[in-house]
Amino acid sequence: MSELTFLVLRIAFLVLLWLFVFGVVYALRSDMFGQGTRKPADGKGARAAGSPAAAGAAGAGAGAGLAAASAAATASKPKPRQQAAAPVASGRRHEAATIHNTTRLVITAGPKEGLEVPLGREPLTIGRSSDSTLVIRDDYTSSHHARLLLWNEDWMVQDLDSTNGTYLGGKRIASPTQITLGTPIKVGATTFELRR
After folding, report:
1. How far is CA 176 from CA 53, 76, 151, 161, in A?
2. 38: phi then psi, degrees, rounded to nearest 5
3. How much is the average pLDDT of 68-77?
4. DSSP, res 4
5. Structure letter (DSSP) for residue 173
6. Global pTM exceeds 0.70
7. What is the DSSP-derived secondary structure letter of residue 2?
8. pLDDT at position 157, please?
């Protein structure tokens, strides 16, 4: 092997090594401190045609009300990414999903098993960070992992770009998804459900 070939291989190896190091540092930073607010680029940020981003252009009143409620509940907290996807509602309405019947969140498995958190109308954030409404400290929970919020009188669960994902009824969610009473929600090593 010539010296020139050996030199090129060494430089390529160093470049790959540094790319790997930067990738690890970026992943650790985003997991510990959350990701900044993302701006959708030329309409590509919305995942669906009926997304809140698209609906916000047509009816800014509802979106502004939701944003104001979220801002009031998390005034001093760093903003996790703004979710652009529309809430996914099931084809039929479940009476059990409305706020009139949902009063509490009950942890059914995990480090805080048995804990009950009363629900109001404000969004409830879940994560390792001390500014979360429900603080869960385990190795599988991100600092800003998930959020529960009201959308048209239905409770929705939203994943906040967590590393390990949020699961509703055993399926990983990618956009805000409607919750029904008694459906297990898994965040890290903790499982909880909404109850009357």
Report:
1. 13, 23, 10, 12
2. -100, 140
3. 41
4. H
5. -
6. no
7. -
8. 96
